[in-house]
Task: inverse folding
């Protein structure tokens, strides 16, 4: 069932990214997907799909399971095989205050980027009243020690993210399987099992939040696409926590691009084929390993690459993504691919036609 139509004005605001503007608009609460499509009586691949052609501003409204109608033999879909951890943990301060800890990114030297959040009914909100050196207690005798604010462009504070160490006696994923749960924001009203936060091609857990652009794929749909001659190449990028509360740049994230994936990307580009990133995480990883001549290389490490119109894109020329909240940094990446005027056209359509936002929402396929 479609939501009522909306007519929403767009605004441009100054970004924290130098020499860049970010699209701002009002997102009605009813357009925030509050539950998985399965809970709304839909299969994974029955979410809506907005297909847009950036050269003509043509827009098509359909369902995701019809995506094959817009793909061609020789198209290369690059997917993220990162699985979603149970990255949220209950935690307690020394004075007994109950909080929630979100694990974001596992850094070298076994350090973590973490976020501490206060309980607010069934939801949480950022908790800024922590200090360097503080140790919080975790379930099962584990604990987390906050060392220093994560200063990635945040100035003098308050600080939302911290560098921390996580002390435990069990392997990480085993520990999180027993004591952790998926990160959930206020627009998702109920808790859902971790299986709802996995894509069908996840092979290695490590993302704090689901690389949600790939969620709608099913094994049957992938089989159909391969039978059509569509190629699929994997890479890995462990997604960190989202920046929903303030306009912040993305953070360092671990990536791995295999040799065969880099080879397939280079072949597709040399033949004039479409390289379609399944999600902004794929764009970030693939662009990290692509040089100024447009040649992709294998590699792994931690990337802090920020995609802006000034930087441009070197490997990707098409994208499947969710709908991003107002002022999100990812909109700068979309502007780099499609242009600001095209984004205005597509987001106006999405708002007017009642598309759903966030990880359980609808999808947008941007094609040349």
Result:
């Amino acid at each position: 069932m479609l939501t009522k139509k909306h007519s929403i004005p767009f605004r441009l605001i100054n970004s924290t990214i130098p020499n860049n503007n970010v699209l701002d608009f009002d997102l009605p609460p009813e357009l925030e997907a509050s539950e998985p499509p399965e809970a709304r009586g839909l299969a994974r691949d029955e979410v809506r799909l907005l297909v847009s052609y950036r050269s003509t501003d043509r827009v098509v409204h359909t369902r995701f399971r019809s995506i094959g109608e817009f793909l061609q033999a020789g198209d290369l879909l690059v997917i993220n095989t990162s699985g979603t951890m149970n990255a949220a943990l209950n935690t307690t301060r020394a004075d007994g205050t109950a909080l929630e800890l979100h694990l974001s990114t596992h850094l070298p030297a076994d350090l973590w980027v973490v976020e501490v959040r206060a309980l607010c009914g069934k939801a949480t909100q950022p908790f800024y009243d922590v200090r360097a050196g503080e140790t919080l207690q975790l379930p099962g005798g584990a604990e987390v020690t906050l060392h220093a604010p994560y200063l990635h462009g945040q100035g003098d504070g308050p600080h939302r993210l911290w560098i921390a160490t996580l002390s435990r006696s069990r392997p990480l994923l085993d520990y999180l399987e027993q004591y952790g749960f998926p990160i959930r924001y206020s627009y998702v009203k109920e808790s859902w099992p971790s299986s709802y936060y996995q894509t069908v091609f996840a092979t290695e857990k490590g993302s704090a939040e689901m690389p949600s652009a790939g969620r709608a794929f099913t094994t049957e749909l992938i089989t159909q696409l391969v039978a059509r001659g569509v190629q699929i190449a994997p890479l890995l990028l462990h997604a960190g926590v989202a920046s929903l509360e303030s306009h912040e740049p993305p953070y360092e994230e671990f990536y791995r691009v295999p040799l065969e994936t880099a080879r397939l990307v280079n072949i597709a580009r040399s033949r004039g084929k479409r390289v379609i990133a399944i999600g902004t995480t794929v764009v970030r990883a693939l662009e990290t390993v692509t040089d100024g001549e447009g040649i992709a290389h294998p590699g792994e490490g931690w990337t802090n690459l920020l995609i802006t119109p000034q930087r441009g894109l070197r490997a990707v020329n098409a994208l499947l993504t969710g709908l991003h909240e107002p002022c999100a940094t990812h909109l700068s990446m979309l502007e780099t691919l499609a242009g600001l005027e095209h984004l205005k056209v597509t987001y106006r359509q999405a708002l007017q036609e009642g598309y759903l936002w966030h990880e359980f929402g609808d999808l947008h396929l941007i094609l040349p």
Remarks:
- The longest helix spans residues 340-352.
